[in-house]
Design brief:
Belongs to the MraZ family. This is Transcriptional regulator MraZ. This protein is an alpha+beta fold. It is built from 5 helices and 8 strands; from the N terminus they run E-E-H-E-E-H-H-E-E-H-E-E-H. The strands form 2 sheets. Strands 1-7-8-4-3-5 form a 6-stranded antiparallel beta sheet. A hairpin with an 8-residue loop joins strand 3 (about 45) and strand 4 (about 55-60).
Length: about 170
């Protein structure tokens, strides 16, 4: 099983679009890059997707290869395969982490999510997301809080892992 990203953090973005990747995230990226070894720049793929996506999804090499294999398993020429190829192959940016642990986000990607001086990183299992901190707070965090507020006082989210709501 692949290593998982855990945690969240805020990092400054400089005028050239350079941002430090959380150290714990870098270890997962390195471990999930079959070509990486000490002294080489670990690789990852940033999927920026369609107009509805307001964050950048960062895939390790192992995670994107898993997605690629599932796309490749679809019938050649099928509409689903063509659309998924566009979303995951066409609307993506392969990149590396430099020797100081930074990632360079191109202006196009920063503009797409409204990223300026600060980026918010949050783990998402075998991927992690980069958000404009204000967008994350107003959209994602607010949605999670609203959902939790709708649950009973004694609700334990772990119950969802068993597929039962315990009602």
């Amino acid at each position: 099983m692949a290593r998982r990203f855990r945690g969240e953090s805020h990092h400054k973005v400089d005028a050239k679009g350079r941002v430090s990747i959380p150290a714990l995230f870098r270890r997962v990226i390195e471990a999930s890059d079959p070509n990486w070894k000490e002294g080489l720049a670990p690789e990852l793929v940033i999927v920026y997707g369609d107009h509805r996506r307001n964050y950048l999804e960062c895939y390790t090499i192992e995670a994107i290869e898993e997605v690629d294999a599932k796309i490749d398993a679809l019938p050649r020429g099928s509409k689903d395969r063509k659309i998924l190829q566009r979303l995951f192959h066409g609307q993506s940016f392969p990149t590396t982490i430099d020797d100081t642990g930074r990632l360079v986000l191109p202006a196009k990607l920063r503009a797409k999510i409204g990223l300026e001086n600060e980026a918010f990183f949050i783990a998402a299992g075998d991927t992690f997301q980069i958000w404009n901190p204000e967008t994350y707070e107003t959209e994602e965090a607010a949605e999670t809080e609203e959902w939790l507020d709708e649950q009973p006082e004694d609700f334990d989210p772990l119950i969802l892992l068993d597929g039962a709501r315990g009602e």
